[in-house]
Specification:
The chain is mainly α and about 280 residues long. The protein is built from ten helices and eight strands.
Length: about 280
């Protein structure tokens, strides 16, 4: 069977079998052989004149074509395959995508609100997974549910709220968790697993005042009263501090000599008489 005929009678097949071939035949029939690039009998390639004399060709050599019809020729040829007058008489919508995914309650097609075109949600999901280096067959497919009362992570929309984007919802709690992970990674290059190890090493307390952290909830991706302390000159993380200690180091600009003088000042003040400055 002719490979072109095997493409069926759809709009693309009709364009390939009839319109494109007719356009090429019409265009080639109107060409002047002497105006085309060609190979002479001695095997030398000759640039065609395009039907123009030498003077005209030299004038146009460095000018771009401004003929709108020429500029849009191939665009129009390509888009003509999808023009409304090329739609086959059988307008019944396909019940599955080109990869065989059935359009049903679990996989309703996404309909572009501007163009009206349909796309398979499974194919879109598989494409996104492959772009991340993940084999789609290793990740169970979760059916699309527009009327669900909770997100796929189990957060109730009534409890946490959501943002509606027409074709889908994004849970506010999922947005918060994603932002918390991204901010921690961007600012300090850490994950919440890294923070958990730091907390365990410090005994779940501030590294300087040893005050226990009481508001940290890593299971809920909340840092609470724990603050990552990092060196502003070396750009490395030093540990976890409470808010007060973190601010204190910032006020003295991490200056060890300033801190030493502060210690001396406090120790000297402890031995002074209570009424010395009275």
């Amino acid at each position: 069977m002719d490979p072109l005929s095997a493409r069926g009678t759809g709009p693309v097949g009709t364009w390939l079998l009839r319109d494109l071939l007719e356009t090429i035949e019409t265009a080639t029939a109107s060409l002047d052989p002497q105006g085309c690039d060609r190979m002479e009998s001695d095997g030398v390639m000759v640039d065609g004149t395009g039907g123009l004399d030498e003077e005209t060709r030299s004038k146009l050599a460095n000018k771009s074509c401004v003929n709108h019809e020429h500029a849009t020729l191939w665009r129009n040829l390509g888009s003509s395959a999808f023009m409304t007058n090329q739609v086959p008489t059988d307008t019944t919508q396909a019940q599955s995508c080109v990869h065989g995914h059935t359009y049903d309650e679990d996989n309703p097609p996404y309909v572009n609100p501007n163009k009206g075109t349909r796309s398979c949600r499974r194919c879109t999901r598989n494409s996104k997974l492959r772009s991340r280096g993940i084999d789609p067959t290793t990740v169970p497919y979760k059916p699309y549910r527009r009327g669900n009362t909770e997100c796929r992570a189990g957060h109730g929309y009534d409890t946490f709220g959501f943002k509606d984007y027409g074709e889908g919802r994004i849970c506010n709690e999922c947005i918060r968790i994603t932002s918390a992970k991204a901010n921690l990674k961007k600012a300090y290059g850490l994950t919440f697993d890294d923070v958990a190890r730091m907390l365990a090493e410090q005994g779940h307390a501030c590294a300087t005042c040893l005050e226990p952290f009481t508001e940290v909830n890593l299971d809920d991706f909340r840092m609470g009263d724990a603050n990552v302390d990092h060196c502003h000159t070396g750009s490395h993380n030093r540990g976890l501090l409470c808010m007060g200690c973190n601010i204190a180091l910032g006020k003295v600009k991490d200056n060890v000599k300033t801190l030493a003088r502060m210690i001396e000042y406090l120790e000297a003040g402890a031995g002074r008489a209570a009424d010395r400055w009275s």
